[in-house]
Amino acid sequence: MVQKAKILLVDDRPENLLALEAILSALDQTLVRASSGEEALKALLTDDFAVILLDVQMPGMDGFETAAHIKRRERTRDIPIIFLTAINHGPHHTFRGYAAGAVDYISKPFDPWVLRAKVSVFVELYTKNCQLREQASLLRLQLEGGGSGGVDAGKETPGLLAELSARLAAVEEQAEALTKQLGEEAADASVVATAAHLERKLTGLRRALDALEPGAGGGAAVLPLQG
Protein backbone atom coordinates (compact mmCIF):
# COMPACT_ATOMS: atom_id res chain seq x y z
CA MET A 1 0.00 0.00 0.00
CA VAL A 2 1.32 3.43 -0.94
CA GLN A 3 1.12 5.89 1.92
CA LYS A 4 -1.25 8.79 1.39
CA ALA A 5 0.32 12.07 0.35
CA LYS A 6 0.01 15.11 2.59
CA ILE A 7 -1.37 18.38 1.23
CA LEU A 8 -0.76 21.57 3.22
CA LEU A 9 -3.60 24.10 3.21
CA VAL A 10 -2.60 27.57 4.43
CA ASP A 11 -5.24 30.26 5.01
CA ASP A 12 -6.07 32.52 7.95
CA ARG A 13 -9.84 32.15 7.38
CA PRO A 14 -11.37 28.90 8.73
CA GLU A 15 -14.19 29.00 6.19
CA ASN A 16 -11.65 28.99 3.34
CA LEU A 17 -9.84 26.01 4.83
CA LEU A 18 -13.15 24.20 5.17
CA ALA A 19 -13.96 24.92 1.51
CA LEU A 20 -10.56 23.62 0.38
CA GLU A 21 -11.04 20.45 2.40
CA ALA A 22 -14.45 19.91 0.79
CA ILE A 23 -12.96 20.34 -2.70
CA LEU A 24 -9.93 18.12 -2.12
CA SER A 25 -11.52 15.38 0.00
CA ALA A 26 -12.30 13.39 -3.16
CA LEU A 27 -8.56 12.89 -3.71
CA ASP A 28 -8.46 10.73 -0.55
CA GLN A 29 -5.17 12.19 0.68
CA THR A 30 -4.14 13.63 4.05
CA LEU A 31 -5.12 17.30 4.34
CA VAL A 32 -3.19 19.38 6.88
CA ARG A 33 -4.42 22.82 8.00
CA ALA A 34 -2.31 25.86 8.83
CA SER A 35 -3.91 29.19 9.75
CA SER A 36 -0.78 31.32 9.30
CA GLY A 37 2.58 31.39 7.58
CA GLU A 38 4.32 30.65 10.87
CA GLU A 39 2.11 27.61 11.46
CA ALA A 40 2.81 26.38 7.93
CA LEU A 41 6.57 26.64 8.42
CA LYS A 42 6.28 24.70 11.67
CA ALA A 43 4.37 21.89 9.94
CA LEU A 44 7.03 21.75 7.22
CA LEU A 45 9.73 21.06 9.81
CA THR A 46 8.47 17.57 10.51
CA ASP A 47 6.27 16.40 7.62
CA ASP A 48 6.76 15.91 3.89
CA PHE A 49 4.11 17.38 1.59
CA ALA A 50 3.17 16.73 -2.02
CA VAL A 51 1.93 20.27 -2.61
CA ILE A 52 1.13 23.48 -0.68
CA LEU A 53 -1.97 25.61 -1.27
CA LEU A 54 -1.00 29.01 0.07
CA ASP A 55 -3.22 32.05 0.55
CA VAL A 56 -1.52 35.31 -0.44
CA GLN A 57 -3.38 37.76 1.83
CA MET A 58 -2.70 36.82 5.47
CA PRO A 59 -2.03 39.04 8.48
CA GLY A 60 1.54 39.06 9.72
CA MET A 61 3.57 36.83 7.43
CA ASP A 62 1.81 36.91 4.06
CA GLY A 63 1.94 34.25 1.36
CA PHE A 64 4.89 35.77 -0.49
CA GLU A 65 7.04 35.90 2.64
CA THR A 66 5.99 32.38 3.65
CA ALA A 67 6.94 31.07 0.20
CA ALA A 68 10.32 32.78 0.42
CA HIS A 69 11.07 30.96 3.68
CA ILE A 70 9.93 27.65 2.18
CA LYS A 71 12.19 28.06 -0.85
CA ARG A 72 15.20 28.96 1.29
CA ARG A 73 15.04 25.68 3.20
CA GLU A 74 16.87 22.71 1.72
CA ARG A 75 14.20 20.31 2.97
CA THR A 76 11.24 22.16 1.45
CA ARG A 77 12.51 24.12 -1.54
CA ASP A 78 11.21 21.62 -4.11
CA ILE A 79 7.66 21.35 -2.76
CA PRO A 80 5.22 22.80 -5.34
CA ILE A 81 3.34 25.89 -4.14
CA ILE A 82 -0.02 26.98 -5.57
CA PHE A 83 -0.92 30.54 -4.57
CA LEU A 84 -4.57 31.35 -3.92
CA THR A 85 -5.66 34.99 -3.85
CA ALA A 86 -8.94 36.89 -3.58
CA ILE A 87 -7.49 39.96 -5.28
CA ASN A 88 -5.92 40.60 -8.63
CA HIS A 89 -3.61 43.57 -8.99
CA GLY A 90 -2.69 42.73 -12.56
CA PRO A 91 0.40 41.18 -14.19
CA HIS A 92 2.87 42.63 -11.68
CA HIS A 93 1.10 40.94 -8.76
CA THR A 94 0.97 37.64 -10.62
CA PHE A 95 4.64 37.92 -11.56
CA ARG A 96 5.51 38.43 -7.90
CA GLY A 97 3.78 35.14 -7.13
CA TYR A 98 5.80 33.22 -9.69
CA ALA A 99 8.98 35.01 -8.62
CA ALA A 100 8.34 33.79 -5.08
CA GLY A 101 8.52 30.22 -6.35
CA ALA A 102 4.90 29.34 -7.06
CA VAL A 103 4.09 26.78 -9.74
CA ASP A 104 0.62 28.27 -10.17
CA TYR A 105 -1.33 31.38 -9.20
CA ILE A 106 -5.11 31.06 -8.94
CA SER A 107 -7.57 33.86 -8.25
CA LYS A 108 -10.66 33.33 -6.10
CA PRO A 109 -13.34 32.35 -6.70
CA PHE A 110 -11.76 29.41 -8.53
CA ASP A 111 -13.23 26.43 -10.32
CA PRO A 112 -13.21 23.51 -7.83
CA TRP A 113 -12.71 20.98 -10.64
CA VAL A 114 -9.69 22.83 -12.01
CA LEU A 115 -8.08 23.19 -8.59
CA ARG A 116 -8.65 19.52 -7.77
CA ALA A 117 -7.18 18.47 -11.13
CA LYS A 118 -4.06 20.61 -10.63
CA VAL A 119 -3.49 19.28 -7.12
CA SER A 120 -4.03 15.67 -8.24
CA VAL A 121 -1.18 15.97 -10.76
CA PHE A 122 1.29 16.99 -8.06
CA VAL A 123 0.02 14.26 -5.74
CA GLU A 124 0.61 11.70 -8.46
CA LEU A 125 4.11 13.02 -9.16
CA TYR A 126 4.89 12.91 -5.44
CA THR A 127 3.64 9.32 -5.19
CA LYS A 128 5.79 8.22 -8.13
CA ASN A 129 8.84 9.87 -6.54
CA CYS A 130 8.17 8.02 -3.27
CA GLN A 131 7.94 4.72 -5.14
CA LEU A 132 11.16 5.53 -6.94
CA ARG A 133 12.96 6.28 -3.67
CA GLU A 134 11.75 2.94 -2.31
CA GLN A 135 13.21 1.08 -5.29
CA ALA A 136 16.48 3.00 -4.92
CA SER A 137 16.64 2.09 -1.24
CA LEU A 138 16.15 -1.61 -2.01
CA LEU A 139 18.82 -1.42 -4.69
CA ARG A 140 21.26 0.25 -2.31
CA LEU A 141 20.68 -2.51 0.25
CA GLN A 142 21.39 -5.09 -2.44
CA LEU A 143 24.59 -3.30 -3.44
CA GLU A 144 25.78 -3.06 0.15
CA GLY A 145 24.99 -6.72 0.90
CA GLY A 146 26.21 -8.17 -2.37
CA GLY A 147 29.88 -7.86 -1.53
CA SER A 148 29.74 -9.42 1.94
CA GLY A 149 26.79 -11.75 1.93
CA GLY A 150 28.61 -14.92 1.01
CA VAL A 151 27.03 -17.87 -0.79
CA ASP A 152 23.50 -17.33 0.51
CA ALA A 153 23.45 -13.72 -0.68
CA GLY A 154 24.58 -14.86 -4.12
CA LYS A 155 21.70 -17.32 -4.31
CA GLU A 156 19.19 -14.63 -3.38
CA THR A 157 20.49 -12.01 -5.81
CA PRO A 158 18.74 -13.15 -9.03
CA GLY A 159 15.35 -13.35 -7.33
CA LEU A 160 15.73 -9.95 -5.68
CA LEU A 161 16.90 -8.34 -8.92
CA ALA A 162 13.87 -9.78 -10.71
CA GLU A 163 11.55 -8.40 -8.03
CA LEU A 164 13.21 -4.97 -8.16
CA SER A 165 13.00 -4.96 -11.95
CA ALA A 166 9.29 -5.81 -11.88
CA ARG A 167 8.54 -3.08 -9.33
CA LEU A 168 10.52 -0.52 -11.28
CA ALA A 169 8.75 -1.53 -14.50
CA ALA A 170 5.39 -0.80 -12.86
CA VAL A 171 6.56 2.69 -11.83
CA GLU A 172 7.98 3.29 -15.31
CA GLU A 173 4.67 2.36 -16.90
CA GLN A 174 2.72 4.68 -14.60
CA ALA A 175 5.16 7.55 -15.18
CA GLU A 176 4.92 7.08 -18.96
CA ALA A 177 1.12 7.20 -18.78
CA LEU A 178 1.26 10.35 -16.64
CA THR A 179 3.64 12.08 -19.05
CA LYS A 180 1.36 11.21 -21.96
CA GLN A 181 -1.64 12.58 -20.05
CA LEU A 182 0.19 15.84 -19.28
CA GLY A 183 1.05 16.23 -22.97
CA GLU A 184 -2.54 15.74 -24.03
CA GLU A 185 -3.80 18.25 -21.45
CA ALA A 186 -1.22 20.93 -22.31
CA ALA A 187 -0.17 21.12 -18.68
CA ASP A 188 1.83 23.97 -17.14
CA ALA A 189 5.52 23.99 -18.06
CA SER A 190 6.53 23.56 -14.41
CA VAL A 191 4.45 20.38 -14.12
CA VAL A 192 5.90 18.96 -17.33
CA ALA A 193 9.42 19.76 -16.09
CA THR A 194 8.75 17.91 -12.83
CA ALA A 195 7.51 14.88 -14.75
CA ALA A 196 10.59 14.97 -16.99
CA HIS A 197 12.82 15.08 -13.90
CA LEU A 198 11.06 11.98 -12.58
CA GLU A 199 11.60 10.17 -15.89
CA ARG A 200 15.32 11.00 -15.84
CA LYS A 201 15.65 9.51 -12.37
CA LEU A 202 13.77 6.41 -13.49
CA THR A 203 16.14 6.01 -16.43
CA GLY A 204 19.18 6.29 -14.16
CA LEU A 205 17.81 3.76 -11.73
CA ARG A 206 17.00 1.34 -14.57
CA ARG A 207 20.58 1.59 -15.83
CA ALA A 208 21.94 0.93 -12.35
CA LEU A 209 19.68 -2.10 -11.97
CA ASP A 210 20.62 -3.46 -15.40
CA ALA A 211 24.29 -3.16 -14.46
CA LEU A 212 23.71 -5.62 -11.61
CA GLU A 213 22.33 -8.33 -13.89
CA PRO A 214 24.58 -11.40 -14.22
CA GLY A 215 26.94 -10.97 -17.15
CA ALA A 216 26.35 -7.23 -17.40
CA GLY A 217 29.95 -6.49 -16.46
CA GLY A 218 28.96 -3.13 -15.00
CA GLY A 219 30.64 -3.50 -11.64
CA ALA A 220 29.35 -1.28 -8.86
CA ALA A 221 26.45 0.83 -10.06
CA VAL A 222 26.10 4.47 -9.07
CA LEU A 223 22.57 5.28 -7.94
CA PRO A 224 21.13 8.45 -9.46
CA LEU A 225 18.66 9.46 -6.75
CA GLN A 226 19.48 11.94 -4.00
CA GLY A 227 16.17 13.59 -3.25
Task: Kindly provide the radius of gyration, computed on alpha-carbon positions and rounded to a whole number of angstroms.
Answer: 21 Å
Q: Topology as H/E string?
A: EHEHEHEHEHHH
Could you describe the largest sheet, including whether it forms a barrel?
A: 5 strands, parallel
Mean pLDDT: 77
The global form is elongated
N-end to C-end Cα span: 21 Å
Modified residues (4-aspartylphosphate): 55
Coiled coil: 161-188
Pfam families: Response_reg
Domain Response regulatory: 6-123
Care to describe what's here?
The chain has 7 helices and 5 strands. It has a 5-stranded parallel β-sheet, sandwiched between helices. It has helices at residues 14-24, 37-46, 63-72, 91-99, 112-146, 150-184, 189-211; strands spanning 6-10, 30-34, 51-55, 81-85, 104-107. The longest helix has 35 residues, at 112-146. With 227 residues, the protein is α/β, with parallel strands linked by helices. It is elongated, with a radius of gyration of 21 Å. Strand 1, helix 1 (14-24) and strand 2 form a beta-alpha-beta unit.
Task: Give the SSE layout.
Blueprint: E1 6-10, H1 14-24, E2 30-34, H2 37-46, E3 51-55, H3 63-72, E4 81-85, H4 91-99, E5 104-107, H5 112-146, H6 150-184, H7 189-211
Parallel strand pairs: 1-2, 1-3, 3-4, 4-5
Helix pairs in contact: 2-3, 5-6, 5-7, 6-7
Short summary of the structure?
With 227 residues, the protein is an alpha/beta fold. The protein contains seven helices and five strands.
